[in-house]
Design a protein that fits this description.
alpha+beta, Thiol Ester Dehydrase, Chain A, five-stranded antiparallel beta sheet, two-stranded parallel ribbon, 2 helices, globular
């Protein structure tokens, strides 16, 4: 007899983190390297996923990372990660990045990404995680969109083999 999975809301695992863009994060144009943003995105998403799973997690896929605007040296960066979808052992985390000018307060949406994580047991094997119950209209929309992403990825994988 299988054990019933617990259920959590996306708000139970949301993460917000902030960074400041320093000169060592930037290219000769004074804007941040995409790899630095990707690293921060992965860290925030991993914290969100492990908070939901209550277990260690590993990144297994990064999809649709979009860089919409540059982030300049000296700007403050706000990274928001929220659980969008949960399977049996895996989960999709949506991440939004905003850049804020600390002197004017002007904020710009700069990056968005979707990352898939798998939770691991004590032996490093995939393990069952709590289910997800989206509650708000926005959470339901993100859940449905993520579900479509999962289905599209499976369909694409079949055609590429």
């Amino acid at each position: 007899m299988s054990k019933k999975r617990s259920i959590k809301s996306p708000k139970d695992s949301m993460i917000e983190m902030r960074e400041m863009v320093m000169p060592n994060h930037t290219n000769p144009q004074g804007t941040i390297f995409g790899g630095v943003v990707m690293s921060w995105v992965d860290i925030a998403a991993a914290m969100c996923a492990s908070r939901h799973a209550e277990k260690p997690v590993v990144t297994v896929h990064i999809a649709d990372i979009d860089f919409k605007a540059p982030i300049k040296v000296g700007n403050h960066v706000l990274i928001k990660a929220s659980l969008n979808y949960v399977g049996k052992t895996s989960m999709i985390v949506g991440v939004k990045v905003e850049s804020e000018n600390p002197y004017t307060g002007k904020s710009v949406k700069t990056t968005k990404a979707y990352l898939t994580f798998v939770a691991l047991d004590e032996d490093g094997q995939p393990t069952v995680i709590p289910d997800l119950k989206p509650e708000t209209q926005d959470e339901i929309r993100r859940y449905e969109n993520a579900k479509k992403r999962v289905e599209a990825k499976k369909a694409l994988s079949k055609t590429l083999k």
